[in-house]
Amino acid sequence: MTNQSEVIDLAVSHFAKHGLVNYSFGFDRAVRRAGQCDFRARRITISKHLVATASLEDVEQVLLHEIAHALVGKDAGHSKIWREKARAIGYRFERVDWEQLASGAKHYLGSCPNGHSHLRVRKPKGARSCRKCADRFDDRYLIRWELVGPNQ
Fold first, then answer.
1. Distance of alpha carbon 133 from alpha carbon 101, whole angstroms
2. Alpha helix (H) ranges present in the chain?
3. Tens-digit pLDDT profile for residues 18-63
4. Domain annotation for the chain: domains and CATH numbers
5. CA geometry: angle at 137 spanning 134 and 141, to 5°?
6. Which pTM was predicted?
7. Gap between the Cα atoms of 52 and 46, Å rounded
8. In 3D, which of 129, 101, 97 has the Cα closest to residue 114?
9. What's the 3-state SS for 4-42?
């Protein structure tokens, strides 16, 4: 488990070390990705759920992945140019354990009267009915939401 202040210090250090200027750093609530390089906003974010469940070394690898994107530009994607830059700055091309990432996130589990399950990261606003039971909203198949996850 890593705390956010350690990650901020790490990000500031790597931004300076790799000459990444005019970019900001922050956290987001993503559970389906570990990090993001937003080229338009010139901002790199790391999932707060990853920070809560991973080691500082693992978070650093995600940070280096995103810094490499920022350094080579949007059009490079995961091309050879990006891979060379990523390798040069210390990225090791290790896989992220997505189950570990999502395990730190609270989420909403919904169920319809027929027992179908629905998973959402955020509680839906307004009433929802089960799409497996009806093509359109139908209050006979109203989904009941329950917060589940860590400390629940």
1. 31
2. 4-17, 48-53, 56-72, 80-88, 98-103
3. 999 999 999 998 877 889 999 999 999 999 888 888 889 989 999 9
4. 4-102 (3.30.2010.10), 106-148 (no CATH)
5. 60
6. 0.72
7. 11
8. 129
9. HHHHHHHHHHHHHHCCCCCCEEEEECCCCCCEEEECCCC
